[in-house]
Amino acid sequence: MTKMNLILMAIASWMMLGCGGGDDAGSSAGGSGGGNPTPTTSAPVVSSVTPANGATDIAIGDVAITVTYDQTVQLASTDKSKIQISGGTITALSASGKEVKMTANCPENSKTVAITIPKDLVTNANSQGAGAYSFSFTTVAAAAPVNTDIASTPVVATTESAKKLYSYFVEQYGQKVISSVMAEVNWNHKIADNIKSATGKYPAMNCYDFIHIYVPENNWINYNDITPVKEWADAGGIVQLMWHFNVPVNASTTPGVDGSGVTCTPSETSFRATNVFTEGSWENKWFYQQMDKVVAVLLKLQDAGIAATWRPFHEAAGNATYKQQATWTKSWFWWGYDGADICKKLWITMFDYFKSKGVNNLIWIWTTQNYNGDANQYNADSDWYPGDQYVDIVGRDLYGYTAAKNEQEFREIQARYPNKMVVLSECGIDNSTNTPYANISDCWNTGAKWGHFMVWYGANLCSNSWWSDALKNSNVITRDQLPSLK
Predict the structure, then answer these.
(1) What pTM was estimated for this model as a whole?
(2) Are both 319 and 182 inside the same structural domain?
(3) How much is the mean pLDDT over the chain?
């Protein structure tokens, strides 16, 4: 072979390699041979799934599922039947970006739902198929039956209207949930009026707060004028009452008529609950002065034939039951700051004082902190409970909770207080995370059969669409459905 032939052969070999003539040229990237080869990529791999693999207490009904991959993906087929599932039915399937979304209808409680996405159903842009992926979750257990061993009469109320109100609560418990909304801090029913305008229905109950009872009469609020409350009751509504019990920041402070100089927060005041029981202390004097103001209003309502639920000293434990104690694991209201025994003593003192003054028209609601559904981090607050003889109803305040978490809390509280009705004494949007509250219909269907729900106002107030869904539900009692309770 001549030198020239060797040179020509070398050039030909080089040209074949440069043009992809070799059998392996560009094959790993799916190239067609001509031009620059497509960059090599790997098949898609799952990076996360929601609900998480192995998750429990998932609400029954339609479950939204998101499977996230490590790269942009698409579906080789949108045929829902290709998804293998036991314990439910796939009703929707789509892909967008790195996510494959599906909806699984899961109708049974305590059911493990197993799902498999088959091999090559999910691909990347180069048609490289992902491997099969399997995961599972378990739906929430069937709801426990509601408490039935409940007293037929209230613990202290003796007026006819109070006994009728309590009997109505017992009759409806576990059958339907009674709707309620919190009034603004003023003595009014404006928010309830707004809900009526938006939905065509009034909530059955309206809750008023004695938060500014310390303000002298004839200033911006006058609790002794019971007209707004009487208007609500005369229209057939149920009255609820609570008390953010404000105290002066110190012994020498004179509270302002504009709401200044008072607080409920322990870190902002030298007022200590322990000293309430020391005769002649400034805390003792303030405590009884304010109770007398409230008593005067309650007796006016009683004389008008109006009974009400009564929820003082709410959320007493705060974060005090957190197992890993720290600077922030305290009660966030002064009435709980000195501990469970002092808080219970405050409750019983008020209970006995109101009774001695002839207040007999109240249904007493105590608010548990439970342990936020997490027994690993929180102890139960049973030590804070005043006792069955001082409490008619046990409430719970929840914000931004899912239906499944509602059911969990309801179940736990019922088990702890088997002789009491259990209610959702506050609820609404969690405005710190902007998390909406679960629809009451979903809570009810999941098994959280609260005796009533009461939505907070302001930034926590649920949307008009939320209220529309609630008040049109056949399991929710609105004002127009109430019998005469006076």
Answers:
(1) 0.75
(2) yes
(3) 90
